[in-house]
């Protein structure tokens, strides 16, 4: 293109930028060749392009040069002795008249529907020589395409004197998704088998797209017995392709040799990687990978835990990883050394991570990819999954092609190389192995050509699926396609309509299933069938449509656990906190699982790590900053602010800097802005006149007497201040988006108490417990407790200026509610119950 039409390369000077255009240009040349478009027709396009179509200038330039590009492309193919599909057809059409076909007495063409122009030239030449016989299914009075064929041979294409009307029983079904449709198919198949055990030998299940294959196989095959799938499985839906995508993704997020930990683990966790048979078998590799995952996610804390980005060399030199893995491997009686474990990990790193980093052209891409696939083929469990083996072979064939391309050394970015490979794999299919001679046949629409079945079942008959039409042409204007007789839209619809109607016309029973949803329309083919049935019956709703329905017995059972004497003993000796009481308040079953069974959700430091670490960072930073002011009045001089900022920088670097790398700057800016606002609020706000800081991050133990006995309580408070007005206040920092403040404690003064009522009014026992503790410790001083929201820099006091209750009333209500909850917890007759 650069030699002959330099203007076409404007803004596409690199091969990577031109490649998408090249694909579309070659696709269009192929279409022109198939339809035997002449140079004279292209000259008309060229002249119109000079005037200018209503398209971008570069498209007009392409249209001017089409004839030249096509000629040069053909010449390149000839020089190399190669053929594209279109050029092969075009060459055959031009040479057909020179062939005598003496070795054949008769050539029979059966069940053709549409001939492209090259095919027309070939079959017409054979027909003139008396060599060709044609068998058609259909009638030109029903199918306009046959009129073109009739004109070619000057012979009528009629089924009979009158157009035949198919005689089949039509039943329509609606589902709401793929799985409900598959359940309908299961019921249909079950009904067919009950009527005739051999019925499935004459049954076809048509799948318009490959996404249906796995759900169908999962649900239907056990019932169907023998079956055959004669359609390809898409590579893009395979587990091997998923691994390739993980490899691409981890390379796209690497920064200065630091790999994004989450994407790194996605690669290692893939079954084909973590089960590699390396130095000492699958088990050793799997234990190594699991230990590495536990360390990086924080389940086994080490200095590498929680890092968002990490260097492979740091992992390879991290002795605790290999020591922990070796200990576990030893329990399986596998003899192995740390050096062997390290070499295994280094091999995985080299093949699946490091080797990809310098990739910048197709030859190197193919080499690195083939090495990775080769290791998977030899050492993984892939051989247990024949479909993935076939997919691997298909990928290797494509990589071999990359190495033979004339532009295999042209520079590409990694993203462009990955895009090239993914584009190639998008439409690739691998065949299933089956027998078409017996059992249920599971086919795509075009695999049913020339086949007849008594029972036809078609799934997913919705617009956009059947017919499946491409209405978008990214390169050539539709106006040009129409003028060259290349507009495929109506033709593709007619071909699919013919294949569908031909299939059901030969059947006795037809079952069509579609999705009925707001974003789905049923196929125009179904609309046509309904219209024909309504015209025949001379009434609306002539076709019964059966919706998907499933018999579901819902047993509403509330999860409960009865308390044992051992539980009661444990609960009486338990030290309660506001957090544990709040857990029971919201859901007694959560309390049972956490405080009786000791169960907790696994914490993954890589899942939204900032949310977990921000609270720890803020509390630790503020404790460290205010330590010099313990039992003193805090000051806010220039030197104090300088120390505040220096401590912030150092603490942030220690907490986040090592793990977040380049992503840390945004979080740092947000935290710095909020904490500076907090700092300013501490010396400017009227309700923050602190005379003395009494405690910082202090744990208090307490014993309180309730009607159920003496109860031990524990409080961990962020800060206790003595204010200038004499008030003693507990302050609890909150870094989250919501503060849990009691709604209206006064409402609990009257009326019967229940856990639900206390939950709705009290919300949380944190501030009430703090208040009651201060009431006992500072009985002669004013007291309060507050939540300090560090997002909004607002102080939410438990006892606000609007409060009308006396101090003793507040403590009485709080202790009354606490007494009720603790009595319920310790009551053997009240089960732990799952709460909404």
Structure, explained:
By secondary structure, the chain is of the alpha/beta class. The chain has 6 domains: 6-96, no CATH class; 99-153, no CATH class; 169-231 and 433-547, P-loop containing nucleotide triphosphate hydrolases (Rossmann fold, 3-Layer(aba) Sandwich), CATH 3.40.50.300; 237-431; 559-602 and 688-836, Lambda Exonuclease, Chain A, CATH 3.90.320; 606-684, no CATH class. It has 31 helices and 21 strands. The strands form 6 sheets. A 7-stranded parallel β-sheet has the order 5-10-4-11-12-3-13, covered by helices on one side. Strands 15, 16, 17, 18, 19 and 20 form a 6-stranded mixed β-sheet that branches. A hairpin with a 4-residue loop joins strand 17 and strand 18. The protein is elongated, with a radius of gyration of 38 Å.
What are the salient characteristics of this protein?
about 850 residues; elongated; Rossmann fold; about 50% helix
Q: What is the strand tally? A: 21
What proportion strand? 5-15%
Give helix % range. Answer: 40-55%
Low-confidence stretches: none
- Give the count of helical stretches: 31
Ends apart, CA distance between termini:
68 Å
Count of distinct structural domains: 6
C-alpha-based Rg, rounded: 38 Å
Sheet bearing the most strands, described? 7 strands, parallel
């Amino acid at each position: 293109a650069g030699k002959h039409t330099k203007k076409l390369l404007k803004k596409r000077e690199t091969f990577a930028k031109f490649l998408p255009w090249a694909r579309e240009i070659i696709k269009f040349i192929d279409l022109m060749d198939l339809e035997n478009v002449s140079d004279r027709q292209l000259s008309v396009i060229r002249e119109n392009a000079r005037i200018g179509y209503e398209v971008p200038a570069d498209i007009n330039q392409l249209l001017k040069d089409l004839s030249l590009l096509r000629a040069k492309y053909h010449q390149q193919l000839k020089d190399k002795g190669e053929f594209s599909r279109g050029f092969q057809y075009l060459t055959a059409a031009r040479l057909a008249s020179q062939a005598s076909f003496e070795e054949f007495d008769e050539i029979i063409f059966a069940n053709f529907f549409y001939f492209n122009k090259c095919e027309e030239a070939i079959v017409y030449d054979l027909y003139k020589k008396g060599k060709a016989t044609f068998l058609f299914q259909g009638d030109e009075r029903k199918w306009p395409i046959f009129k073109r064929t009739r004109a070619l041979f000057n012979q009528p294409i009629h089924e009979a004197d009158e157009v035949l009307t198919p005689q089949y029983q039509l039943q329509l079904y609606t589902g709401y998704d793929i799985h409900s449709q598959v359940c309908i198919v299961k019921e249909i198949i079950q009904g067919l088998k009950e009527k005739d055990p051999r019925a499935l030998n004459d049954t076809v299940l048509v799948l318009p797209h490959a996404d249906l294959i796995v759900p169908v196989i999962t649900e239907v095959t056990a019932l169907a017995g023998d079956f055959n799938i004669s359609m390809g499985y898409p590579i893009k839906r395979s587990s091997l392709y998923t691994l390739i995508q993980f490899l691409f993704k981890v390379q796209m997020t690497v920064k200065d040799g630091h790999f994004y930990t989450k994407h790194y683990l996605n690669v290692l966790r893939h079954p084909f990687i973590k089960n590699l048979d390396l130095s000492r078998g699958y088990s050793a590799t799997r234990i190594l990978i699991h230990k590495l995952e536990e360390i990086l996610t924080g389940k086994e804390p080490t200095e590498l835990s929680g890092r968002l980005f990490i260097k492979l060399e740091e992992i390879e030199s991290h002795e605790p990883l290999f020591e922990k893995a070796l200990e576990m491997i030893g329990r399986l009686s596998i003899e192995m050394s740390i050096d062997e474990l390290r070499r295994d990990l280094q091999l995985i790193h080299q093949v699946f991570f490091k080797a990809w980093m310098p990739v910048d052209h197709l030859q190197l891409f193919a080499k690195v990819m083939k090495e990775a696939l080769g290791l998977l083929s030899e050492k993984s469990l892939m051989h247990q999954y024949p479909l993935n083996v076939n997919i691997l072979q298909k990928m290797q064939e494509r990589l071999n092609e990359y190495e033979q391309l004339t532009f295999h050394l042209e520079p590409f970015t990694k993203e462009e190389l990955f895009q090239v490979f993914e584009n190639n794999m998008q439409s690739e299919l691998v065949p299933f192995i089956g027998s078409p001679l017996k059992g249920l046949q599971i086919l795509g629409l075009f695999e049913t050509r020339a086949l007849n079945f008594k029972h036809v079942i078609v799934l997913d008959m919705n617009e956009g699926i059947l017919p499946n039409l491409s209405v978008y042409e990214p390169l050539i204007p539709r106006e040009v396609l129409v003028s060259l007789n290349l507009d495929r839209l109506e033709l593709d619809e007619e071909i699919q309509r013919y294949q569908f109607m031909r299939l059901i016309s030969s059947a006795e029973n037809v079952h069509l299933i579609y999705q009925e949803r707001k974003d789905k329309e049923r196929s125009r083919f179904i609309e046509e069938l309904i219209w024909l049935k309504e015209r025949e019956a001379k009434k609306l709703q002539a076709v019964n449509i059966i919706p998907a329905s499933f018999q579901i017995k819902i047993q509403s059972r509330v999860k409960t656990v009865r308390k044992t004497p051992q539980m009661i003993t444990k609960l009486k000796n338990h030290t309660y906190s506001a957090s544990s009481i709040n857990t029971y308040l919201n859901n007694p079953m959560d309390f049972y699982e956490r405080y009786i069974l000791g169960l907790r959700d696994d914490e993954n430091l890589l899942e939204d790590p900032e949310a977990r670490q921000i609270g720890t960072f803020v509390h630790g930073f503020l404790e460290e900053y205010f330590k010099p002011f313990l039992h003193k009045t805090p000051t806010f001089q220039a030197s104090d602010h300088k120390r505040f900022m220096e401590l912030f920088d150092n603490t942030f670097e220690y907490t986040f800097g090592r793990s977040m790398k380049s992503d840390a700057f945004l979080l740092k800016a947000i935290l710095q802005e909020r904490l500076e606002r907090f700092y300013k609020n501490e010396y400017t706000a009227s309700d923050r006149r602190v005379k003395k800081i009494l405690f910082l991050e202090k744990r208090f133990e307490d014993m309180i007497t309730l009607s159920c006995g003496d109860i031990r309580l524990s409080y961990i408070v962020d800060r206790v201040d003595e204010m200038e007005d004499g008030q003693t206040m507990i302050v609890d920092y909150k870094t989250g988006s919501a503060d849990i403040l009691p709604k209206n404690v006064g409402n609990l003064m009257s009326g019967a108490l229940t856990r639900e009522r206390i939950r709705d009014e009290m919300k949380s026992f944190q501030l009430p417990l703090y208040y009651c503790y201060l009431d006992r410790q500072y009985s002669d001083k004013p007291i309060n407790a507050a939540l300090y929201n560090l997002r909004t820099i607002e102080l939410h006091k438990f006892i606000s200026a609007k409060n009308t209750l006396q101090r003793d009333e507040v403590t009485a209500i709080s202790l009354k509610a606490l007494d009720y909850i603790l009595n319920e917890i310790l009551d053997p007759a009240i089960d732990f119950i799952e709460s909404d």
